[in-house]
């Protein structure tokens, strides 16, 4: 199967998981296309999209100061890129996921480090699905 077809299937899988769960975590090494994949997924989904890139100062500051307030006001799909930079967000996401009035689903992008997976698994047990983004094939590069 070509790399392109694999990426399409991966997009479909993530979109389905976002319907099933309040949180989906896209995990993978740096530079494997997690952000590009998230853009493609969000472009095909109904509802608004809010993106927080925690590598940018503005994105990080907004979620460092009042994360629960900021995230509670979001609707549609909320993408948090480089989520490993603010591991405290996992605890904040738990009550948001359990809120019956929740209007958002969360797509977390980050490295596949054991500490990140452990933090997400412990804080969001039963609320999160993981999708591993493989490295790019030679044809994709």
Tell me the β content.
15-25%
List SSEs in N-to-C order.
HEHEHHEHEHE
Counted by DSSP, the helix tally is: 6
CATH topology: Rossmann fold
Spatial order of the strands forming the largest sheet: 2-3-4-1-5
Low-pLDDT stretches are: none
**C-alpha-based Rg, rounded:** 14 Å
* Architecture (CATH level 2) name: 3-Layer(aba) Sandwich
Percent helix range: 40-55%
What is the strand tally?
5
Mean pLDDT: 83
Q: So what's the overall shape? A: globular
N- to C-terminal separation? 16 Å
Quaternary status: single chain
Judged by helices, strands and strand pairing, the structural class is: alpha/beta
How is the biggest beta sheet arranged? Answer: 5 strands, parallel
Descriptive notes:
- The chain is α/β, with parallel strands linked by helices and 141 residues long.
- It has one domain: Rossmann fold (3-Layer(aba) Sandwich).
- 45% of the residues lie in helices and 20% in strands.
- It has six helices and five strands; from the N terminus they run αβαβααβαβαβ.
- The chain has a five-stranded parallel sheet with strand order 2-3-4-1-5, sandwiched between helices.
- Helix 5 links the parallel strand 3 and strand 4.
- It is globular and about 40 Å long.
- The model has no long low-confidence stretch (mean pLDDT 83).
